[in-house]
């Protein structure tokens, strides 16, 4: 899993898809915002699995973001 923290979520989603990851969920890390509508309006604060973990195309990747 690449280190994506601090990056804009729009290109991050495209980068993960480019690596063959198809099960990507963008999730708000801020309880004031329930849904992520436009990924490019958000910044990555963490991921599950965390950076450095080995993943394959079938792993679910959750990208936690804030505005």
Whole-number radius of gyration? 11 Å
Spans of 5+ residues with little confidence (pLDDT < 50)?
A: none
In the residues, how many domains can be counted?
1
**Terminal CA distance:** 23 Å
Can you tell me the overall shape? globular
Helical proportion, percent range: 10-25%
Number of E strands: 3
**What proportion of the residues form beta strands (DSSP E)?**
25-35%
Number of distinct helices: 1
Main sheet record: 3 strands, mixed
Strand order of the largest sheet: 1-3-2
Strand and helix order: HEEE
The structure class reads alpha+beta
Nearest-integer average pLDDT:
94
InterPro entries: PASTA_dom (IPR005543)
Protein name: PASTA domain-containing protein
Domain PASTA: 1-67
Description:
- The chain has 67 residues and is an alpha+beta fold.
- The protein has one domain.
- It contains 1 helix and 3 strands.
- The protein has a 3-stranded mixed sheet with strand order 1-3-2, with helices on one face.
- The longest helix is centred in the first third of the chain and has 10 residues.
- The radius of gyration is 11 Å and the shape is globular.
- The relative contact order is 0.36.
- The mean pLDDT is 94.
- This is PASTA domain-containing protein.
- InterPro entries: PASTA_dom.
- It comes from Mycobacterium aquaticum.
């Amino acid at each position: 899993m690449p280190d994506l923290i601090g990056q804009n979520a729009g290109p991050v989603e495209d980068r993960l898809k480019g690596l063959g990851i198809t099960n990507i969920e963008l999730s708000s890390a801020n309880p004031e915002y329930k849904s992520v509508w436009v990924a490019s309006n958000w910044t990555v604060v963490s991921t599950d699995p965390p950076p450095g973990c080995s993943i394959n195309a079938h792993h679910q990747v959750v990208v936690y973001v804030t505005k």
